[in-house]
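Closing statement on the protoporphyrin IX containing FE sub-project.
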Amino acid sequence: MISAIPPVASLAQKEIALPPPLHSPAFYAGDPFPAYRELRATDPVTWNEEHGFWALLKYEDIRYVSTNPALFSSARGITVPDPAIENPVMEGSLIFTDPPRHRRLRKLINSGFTRRQVAILEPKLRAFARTALDAIDPAGGTEFAERIAAPLPTRMIAELLGAPDEDWEQFRRWSDAAVGMDDPDVELDTFTAMGELYQYFEKLIALRRNGALRDSDDLLSVLVAAEVDGVRLSDQDLLQFCLLLLVAGNETTRNLIALGTLALIEHPQQFRLLREHPELIPTAVEEFLRYTSPVANMTRCATRDVEMRGRLIREGQYVTMLYGSANRDEDIFGPTSEQLDVTRNPNPHLAFGCGEHSCLGAQLARLEARVLFEELLARFEHIEPAGEVLRMQATMVPGVRAMPVRLRAATDPRRAKARAG
Ligand code: HEM
């Protein structure tokens, strides 16, 4: 049994207060941060009675769980558990595997998912961002989530995989359906979407296996040929990886771009600072990741009894890591942990997780956000809400579905430069 972290003193007291509904999609789609703050102070390893799982609020505890895959497995599901259904698992897919299989798979996939593969996307990404932003009529405003935040990540994944341009919109429908299973408004059901995706990716893989696209250097072509220690990726591995990229890379990055923009709208001084000092944009992207935590949580299952802060986590119980809380932990980020500060540095946030499963797409997500904010801030000197922000009803990635905004075009010379460049 593990007991590295001291117990909290006031257990009896806090059990009287009404516990926040950590099992509820609406909780994550709303403003969970005040409840996180309260729980960090009173009940940082908290039991959710309704769905029967533990939730972790403190940074160090989440690091501990993420870096001990032998004690906390990903193979029995990674979503907030729901007693009405078995925790979904796509057996064998990277994110649902533990070492040693996880290490083998990750090594193979890393060989294709390199910095270079990501960097070669930048010119295309910038062109997409410019086209999307230039299409905005500042006077009329725009639906920011749908028109700006959503298409970029989808297009980048399509580019990575070497999928033809005309499939982009279909990509997006599948991805929404695959991630938004808690959302009654999503029409296409998850299983239909997964089936259609499988068939589509089978075609892309077959084209590369049979040599029809011999000279292409997209990620999928690299992975088809990848070999580490005499081991290669099977068709099944590749299919699952394509699906994982789509699910893991779309809604998450869309959320970062939309919620980052919303954070700037709500903090006009920070908006101005960033416009005056665009060199701060990479630092600001880290702060958007910390402050908004686009992925609310990931879950693990204890493989044996573990004690944390005086609470006994039993073998077989689920433990949910609340990244949004870790990212505002006063012990790590100090007295300004609840504030947006685009100059914050260092910023050791856990928005991409850490340890074994830390986000494979982190560099791509950072690049997408950096380029988008560079182009956005060069063009517009003011952004304001023009209607209600609507969130997906989901526990893990409560994405932004609608975010109408009005923008004012910049009058300074950088705007002209951005358009010309
Ligand atoms: C802002 C954007 C993103 C955020 C906040 C994010 C967050 C995360 C987190 C927290 C994990 C850890 C999962 C765990 O510990 O169980 C993860 C894993 C992963 N992410 Fe991301 N992600 C983002 C974008 C992307 C993109 C753009 C891609 C690829 C196109 C991607 C692909 C993956 C994959 C494949 C994994 C699984 C890695 C493994 O199991 O070894 N993510 N991501």
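The CA atoms of residues 352 and 359 lie 5 Å apart. With this model delivered, the sub-project is considered complete and its resources will be redirected to Aim 3.
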